[in-house]
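Hey, I'm writing a tutorial for new members on how sequence and structure tokens pair up, and I'd like a real worked example in the thread rather than a made-up one. If someone can provide the structure for the chain below, I'll link this post from the tutorial.
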Amino acid sequence: MIKALIVILLFAVIISLFSGLFFLVKDEGKTTRTVNALTVRVTLSVMLLALLAYAVISGQLPINPYASATLTLDAL
């Protein structure tokens, strides 16, 4: 479930990025639609980072799934 939300937010950020580019080219900086697209993109990115932090802290998204779970300081 968390992974699906991460993918959805990534796609939303990419869509917002291209909509901002479209507004920038089409409006030539005369309207505030580019600024609004930037605001949406920043908000989505903050939500994505918060979701990633939650997933890592809660253990639902392992940072390195191939690492041994019983790693000690002696092994380093």
